[in-house]
């Protein structure tokens, strides 16, 4: 496994909170920072024995860090470890799991079912409502997604444009991207879609959008992602392979699009009629 990532907020809180923790909690914080790979896959009894504290102390420590208990805390440590895995390491993990799968579909389908279940568990209705209002009120929506998140960004951009929104897609961040954001009106909304391994350039672009006081919406995997907007929506995307598992993010994006479409039926129908008129005149589609 690689070294512990430096930026995630959980790691930052462990480092910065040492002076405010109790003596036993300081022991735990230092142990986690130095042995995160071990913690990621240890039972609570193993962790307690290794760190030299009681299991009850570990549970209290997890709650101090705003987790419901040790399983939730450990799940986040595992996510941080996996987020930094290189392609070779991801491939080896997936290859090992393939040997235990019942059918070729099981490895991917089972993990995507877990991701969808987690999407339901972590769904924040208030943040979702804010995201809808932000998109509806935007003069322009700039959708940013690169590398494995490119299909997600394209899907959102295509749907928004089809619904008649002024939408711009950014599938690769260049100096011209910053030029464009420097010119957009203050009512623009920047949507950044990003998943592990997080792209540094997306974080920089998000920071630039915030410096311009633009509305920012992020679609990412957890509250510990470095991609945090003025509103953030979370869709888990844990992968059992070196390829991205984006079923849950796609469900979230399609849900947003559906809600936007029914929020203003007249606008939606007019936009779809315009599209169909152009498609008919230009003979877009094969007909029987």
Keywords:
alpha/beta, 8% strand, elongated, 288 residues
List the helices and strands and how they pair.
Layout: H1 9-16, H2 23-34, H3 36-40, H4 44-51, H5 55-64, H6 70-83, H7 87-98, H8 106-122, H9 125-136, E1 141-144, H10 150-162, E2 167-170, H11 175-183, E3 189-193, H12 200-211, E4 215-220, E5 231-234, H13 247-263, H14 265-281
Parallel strand pairs: 1-2, 1-3, 3-4, 4-5
Description of the structure:
The chain is of the alpha/beta class and 288 residues long. It has 14 helices and five strands. A five-stranded parallel beta sheet has the order 2-1-3-4-5, with helices on both faces. Helix 8 packs across helix 13 and helix 10 runs parallel beside helix 13. The longest helix has 17 residues. The radius of gyration is 22 Å and the shape is elongated. The N terminus is likely disordered.
């Amino acid at each position: 496994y690689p070294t512990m990532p430096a930026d995630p907020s959980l790691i930052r809180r462990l480092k910065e909170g040492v002076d405010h923790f109790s003596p036993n909690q300081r022991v735990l914080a230092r142990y986690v920072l130095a042995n995160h790979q071990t913690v990621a896959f240890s039972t609570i009894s193993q962790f307690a024995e290794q760190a030299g504290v009681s299991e009850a102390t570990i549970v209290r420590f997890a709650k101090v860090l705003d987790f419901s208990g040790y399983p939730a805390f450990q799940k986040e440590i595992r996510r941080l470890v996996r987020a930094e895995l290189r392609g070779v390491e991801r491939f080896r993990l997936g290859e090992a799991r393939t040997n235990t799968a019942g059918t070729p579909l099981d490895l991917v389908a089972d993990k995507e079912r877990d991701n969808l279940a987690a999407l339901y568990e972590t769904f924040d209705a208030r943040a979702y409502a804010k995201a809808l209002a932000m998109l509806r009120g935007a003069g322009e929506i700039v959708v940013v997604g690169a590398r494995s998140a490119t299909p997600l960004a394209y899907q959102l951009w295509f749907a928004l444009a089809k619904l008649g929104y002024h939408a711009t897609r950014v599938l690769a961040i260049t100096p011209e991207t910053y030029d464009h954001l420097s010119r957009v009106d203050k009512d623009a909304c920047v949507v950044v879609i990003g998943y592990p391994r997080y792209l540094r350039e997306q974080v920089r672009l998000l920071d630039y959008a915030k410096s311009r006081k633009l509305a920012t919406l992020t679609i990412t995997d957890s509250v510990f992602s470095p991609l945090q907007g003025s509103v953030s929506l979370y869709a888990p995307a844990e992968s059992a392979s070196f390829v991205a598992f984006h079923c849950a993010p796609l469900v979230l994006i399609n849900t947003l699009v559906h809600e936007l479409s029914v929020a203003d039926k007249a606008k939606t129908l007019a936009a779809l009629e315009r599209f169909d008129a152009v498609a008919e005149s230009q003979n877009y589609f094969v007909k029987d």
